[in-house]
Amino acid sequence: MPDKPLRRAFPLLMAPLLASLQGCDMPEPRSASTSRIATAALFAPATPEPDGNAVLEELGKPDKPIRLEETQAVVNVIVRMTFDRSTGGYLVADESENQIRQYGPDGELVRYFARHGDGPREFRFLNRALRLSTGEVLALDGFNKGVVFDSTGSRVVRSFSTPVGPVHSVQLLNDSLLLLGGEIRDEREVTSPGARLHLWNLNRDTLIRSFFTPAVRGQARQMASSVGGFVATDARADTIAAVFALTDTIFLFDHAGRRLGQVPIPFRKFRRLSESASLPRFDEVLGAREWVGSFSLISHVFWLRDGSFLVQYQDRIGTEPRWRLLHMRRDGGFILERRDTPKLLNVDQANDHLVFTRPGSEAPNEWSRVRLAER
Predict the structure, then answer these.
(1) Going by DSSP bridges, is the β-strand pair 99-103/89-94 parallel, antiparallel, or unpaired?
(2) pLDDT below 70 — which residues of the chain?
């Protein structure tokens, strides 16, 4: 039976898995792109790779592949992508390089800015870059730092600090309201201890409200939550959809954080955490990894134009995530569930284009774009 010191120390034991558990790849050297292939080969799963192209064709109509342009100064390593409405392209935040890149629709590099460090234009754990309606670029560090750049990234307009960290998700609800997923470092600053979602006013640089406190009961769930207890969100009109990694439910809130309801996710292949399974000891690294691989974790929720949801979750095979994708109706009705899909990076709500990592590619700058088929 693990004690409290073990539960506090367990995330340190599992630190190498944290990035990939949240939908990212493991860091790698800042040298040539070939190191990415060597890293992937080192941790390659023992089971055969699925035919990712066939899976994409089953989901919808694949478009031409996208290859993000790289240079001596720009190498994609750990990337999070948002759609750039100003160009029809993409904004990429690279946590390893702490660099922001603007790409055109076909992957052409338009510009890049920011770097590693503690200065005004620098980050330690760059998490996300978002285009504001003003044309400015909002960048969030994984731990409390926010910076607003001008439209070209050449000048810092202002910076601010939030109490949220580490940040799991970032959602721009409107010009003044930012939704941050994560935990508060000092819960004396909030009225809802344990809350995972936080509304931040960009005009006043103020935390407005914290909400969404998933139930975490039992030794196993407490331990799993300390490692994989992240949240993901998506918003449509005035409603927020939120998921917690260990809970098979979509929770709905308004922009004030008021609960509107919940929808059970009709999983058929999701492996639920067992409270009866033996828990790993702190000194059993391999045992801990096997334990984390014994249950599924929800990574993302995406809201489509017709009101349906895509839910991406993962199972662990050794140190590698295997991605799964479920499509469900707004009322919880089942549409489809597919195992061993490529990683879904983001969904463009304007046209239901899905952007995946390219099947079979070891490089994070190679993507596939798919228009989801009507069901």
Answers:
(1) antiparallel
(2) 1-51, 186-192, 282-285
